[in-house]
Please model this.
Amino acid sequence: MPTFPAPDGARLAYRTLGTGDPVVCLPGGPADSAYLGDLGGLSAHRRLIIADLRGTGRSAPPEDPAGYRCDRLVDDVEALREHLGLPAMDLLAHCAGANIAAQYAARFPHRVRMLALITPSTRAVGIDISWQTRRDLAQLRSQEPWFPAAFAALEAIGAGTGSDVDAIAPFLCGRWDERARRHHESARPGNAEAVARFGAEGAFDPRATRAALAAFAAPVLLLAGEFDLNSPPSSAAAFAGLFPDASLVVQPGAGHSPWIDDADRFAATTAAFLG
Model:
């Protein structure tokens, strides 16, 4: 697995899949990027450069734990672009990785040709998701056999009397089958410190980021899953509204990892956007 030096000297890793024009891919979590797989076959259309964030996968942790902060990870993305020798790049990010990508686009707009945000977290731009929004979305699944137990766990979390996030995992998937269960396990963040410090004080400046994105000229894709409780379509729509040239696509029947729920549809949609 190739590596490159971060600004502070840490060795960071990435993997390459497919052929053709490159697209740099940022995982969520922070978690081992292996859970992205080949993004539902997107590697048949583009060469995927999939980064391991600091302290995940084969990337080294920072000597200073503050290096896990989201805004610090932006510098790692710029170091990867320089390492790859790309004057500008297409950038794709999933979930929490969208916070890194949004801040990267705000700070280095001339380095981004196209930006694809997949079921994005919205912390970097200060878009809040109400508990009622999540609850209403969950009730769309009321006919599923797993719904009663999962909804009870969700209500307990909302009331502050429960914390069983694994019990609500079915709400993040278009289908709660064996493949979804395996993928849910593979996407678990393995570095608790990286997760805890990702959003530490100073990691986000929503007002400044929103102002910068209002002038971001490159095309942007916001892809949401119809049933995604983590990143609801409404929050993706609000995110899309921050850009001058953004398209919102809601993938039917999909959850938080739409390439798992319908790989062909996801790959076709994303490849068509990236061109």
